[in-house]
Amino acid sequence: MKIAFLSTFYPFRGGIAQFNALMYRTFEKKHSVKAVTFKRQYPNFLFPGETQYVTKDDNADEIPAKELLDSINPLTYVSTSKAIKAYEPDILITKYWMTFFGPSLGYVCKSLKNTAKRISILDNVIPHEKRFFDGFCNNYFLKNNDGFIVMSDAVLKDLLSIVPDAKYLRVNHPVYNHFPAKIERTEAQQALKLDPSKKTLLFFGFIRDYKGLDLLIQAMDHLDENFQLIIAGEVYGSFEKYQQLIDASNYKNNIHLFNQYIGDDEVTIYFSAADVCILPYKSATQSGITSIANHYDLPIIATNVGGLKETIHHLKTGIIVEEPEIELISNAITNYFNNDYQKEFSIEIKKEKAENSWENFCEKIIEFSKTL
C-alpha cells in the first residue's frame, strides 16, 4: 500500500517522534511510505520545554520527512494537502495528542476525503489540561477521519463520548525496542552516583502537574532511609514547588535530580539502575513510559487513572494504586519490596511483551484500513 504519514518526525524530538519513527521503519519494510512533518510544530512561546528539536547529543532516527505543515499558518494547510494528494496514498495516518493540532491536521484530513482512508492514532481526546478551544478543535478533527486507533479503554471512552458511531481499532501500545540494551544495575547506579545498597525508585519522563511527582516526593517521608528516588526528565513549567517539597523532605539527600531531556542513549542508565518505575499520575489516558519500562522488564507501580491499569496487570506485572494519594502510594511501594515482587513481575513482563510488537501493531492497522 501507499501510506502518507503526517505527524511529528525528525528534526523534532520526544516520545511522539520516537513512536512515529518506529512505525515508519516498520511500515517501510512492506509498503511505500511518505512521511510529512511540521515546519513549525508549536510557536516557541507555547512550548514549555527547553527545545522542540533534536540536539547534537540526541541519537535520533533521521526519518526523511518533508517539513511542510505550520500549525498556525493556514496557507500551509493547503500546500500540505496538495503535496499529500499528489502522492496518491491509499491511507493517510495522523497522530493526535493535543487539541491545538485539530485545525491543521483536521484540514488536511478533510481535504483527503474520498482520496484516502483517513486513520488517526489517538493518544488523547479529552486533554488533561483543558482550554477554551478544545471542543471545537476536537469536533473538527474527529469528524474528518474515517477510523481511529486507540491504545486504551480510557481514550476509547472519550472518543465515543464525542463520536458515538466512530469506527475504531483497540490495540495495545507496542513495546519500544529502539533503546540500548539493559546494563548491570551496579554499573548504572555507579554512573548516576547512587547508593547501590538502597531500594531505588524511578520517576521518568516530562514533568507536568498531572503526573503527580509532588505526591511521590511526599510519599518518600512515609518510607525510610533505605529508599532512594531518581527524578529524570525535562520540566514543563516551573520546578519550584517540587524543589520546595524536596527541601522539606526528611530524606532529601536520597532524592536525585536529573532535570533535563533524556536522550535515547541515556535511557538505559535510568531504567537499569531502578528496582521499580513509579507513575503517581493524578490523571492519564495512557503512558509511553509503560512501554519503555516493559522494554527493560522493569515492573511499574501506578495509580488507577485513565488506561494505566490496562497495560499494568495488578500483582502480575506491577501494582495498581486505587487512588493518587500519598499514603496509598507509599504503602504500595512498601508492599512491592516486602514481597520481593521484582523478579516475579519481570518474568511476566517478558511473556507479555512479545505480542505487543511493532510488526503486529502495524499489520493490524493495515487490516483495519481494509474495513473502512
Structure overview:
The protein has 372 residues and is of the alpha/beta class. It folds into two domains: 2-174 and 357-369, Rossmann fold; 185-353, Glycogen Phosphorylase B (Rossmann fold). The protein has 14 helices and 13 strands. Helix 1 (15-27) packs across helix 14 (358-369) and helix 2 runs parallel beside helix 3. The longest helix is centred in the first third of the chain and has 14 residues, at 74-87.
Contiguous runs where pLDDT drops below 50 for at least 5 residues:
none
The general outline is globular
Order of helices and strands: EHEEHEHEHEHEHEHEHEHEHEHEHHH
Radius of gyration: 21 Å
Main sheet: which strands, in order across?
A: 3-2-1-4-5-6-7
- Give average pLDDT, whole number: 93
Helical segment count: 14
Task: Spell out the key features of this protein.
372 residues, alpha/beta, Rossmann fold, six-stranded parallel beta sheet, globular
